[in-house]
Amino acid sequence: MKLRQSFLSALTLVLASTFVNAQDAAALTGPGLPSRKPAVTTDGLERLISRSKLLAHAEQFFSFAQLSNGNRAFGSKGHEATIQYIKRLLDRTGYYDVEFQTFTYPYAESRSQLTVDGKDLLTQAFTYSPGGDVTAPIAIVSNVGCEASDYPTLTGKIALIKRGDCDFGLKVAYAGGAGASGAIIYTNVDTAPSGGTLGQPSRPEGPYVPSAFIHKADGEAFISRINAGEEVVASIHATAISEDRSTSNVIATTKQGDRDNIIVAGAHSDSVPAGPGLNDDGSGSMGILEVALNLAKFKVKNAVRFIWWSAEEFGLVGSEYYVEHLSDEERQKIALYLNFDMIASPNAGFFVFDGDGNATDIPGPAGSEVIETLYRGYFDSHNIRTGSAVFGGSSDYQPFVDVGIPSGGLMTGAGGLKTAEGAEWWGGEAGVAYDRCYHQLCDNLENLFVDAWERNSKAIAYSIATYAQGIEGIPRTPRPPTRTLRVSKLSYEQRLHLTCDHDDDAA
């Protein structure tokens, strides 16, 4: 089943609907008391999900990114505008108790630009890489650059190093120790570089130098030219920021419904510093926002809580903070958690989290298999095959899993490559990343696969309507009062690695 439609084609359906204003929000709910609203049903909520409204939100999110150098990284002007927009629309419904949960966390940003022969190449940066401007000939490092002996004298040169076998930071430090004025690391597989870290602020092997991370094909092209006797001159422009930033989760809980059985749905509202994050995770944030706005037309039996996490891209910081600061009593009241991180990938697969662990050998807490079954049944009813996503720890479900809360969710894939079987199931291109713009500047409006996004948003509506009315099969026996939160034990740099690649497992 092929589900491809470009953003621009879909955008023609929006026309002037580029902003959800106060009149739109008022029309969602009306002034009537909750008792006058109909009980929520799966069909009733699902049919209200509109691609035109999703696209209107997308235009807003993209405009917010332009406030802060093209991104919505936590604590930036773009991110602040995002969360204010979400809260404003929810407040206008009058249906939710809406609050900001504010915290402070260290922010680090490195940017790198590489130019060769007057052409800018696709480049990612490493955290802890110093800023600076370097122009020099490229020199090839032996092997994969994990030994000091691999580095010739590099004074006045930029070291070219293959990825693999040891830390990025060690390679760049060795280059600096050999006198290099800059370092370029190229990937060892045919996928685009998605960013990285030097691991620590400094190393004894040598000083860090301005650096860039590039695609394997570009690195190998440089090697061919140099081996043919050509001098290849490169320019690196690198910048670095390190500071503490204040930021907030947005939490919206229905005023009605049983608060001893709370249904929680979440998506992260921040992007990486490299780009606007319209798929990662604007798609999930906008999907649950549209469901929340439409849920306000209905009565619910169980309370529903929507949360937009901040600082996910720095290691699940917002979700970890939220769960860590819940009392044991409040944790017990959460019946289940649903996570939506990247649901509009341009080369999409349809992945459901493997609650029973049958496909990935990593089950979620008891009850997660019930959520998995619900989503697989939904997609089966629309003749869409589903793959299995693993609870691998790289998104905001992890803190909930750590404390034994049944969890599930949907995703369409990140930097992993679509298999031939996946292309047969869903269309698209085998051997190509689900999202070729993952963690890049091009994760913009054109990167959204609107058909997949709309279908997943309707699946979210289906699940919210189901569980808002009943939680049959979800265990409600008391959970152990204390569980270790895995992420909180990790270092700052280890937390950053959690989001270096989302979980992709095409069944």
Automatic annotation (TrEMBL):
InterPro entries noted in UniProt: M28_fam (IPR045175), M28_SGAP-like (IPR041756), PA_dom_sf (IPR046450), PA_domain (IPR003137), Peptidase_M28 (IPR007484)
UniProt keyword Metal-binding, yes or no: yes
N-terminal signal peptide: 1-22
Protein name: Peptide hydrolase
Keywords for the protein's UniProt record, in alphabetical order: Aminopeptidase, Hydrolase, Metal-binding, Protease, Signal, Zinc
Taxonomy, superkingdom: Eukaryota
Enzyme class: hydrolase
Cofactor or coenzyme needed: Zn(2+)
Residues annotated as domain PA: 134-221
Coiled-coil intervals: none
GO process annotations (BP): proteolysis
Peptidase M28 domain: residues covered: 249-462
Pfam families: PA, Peptidase_M28
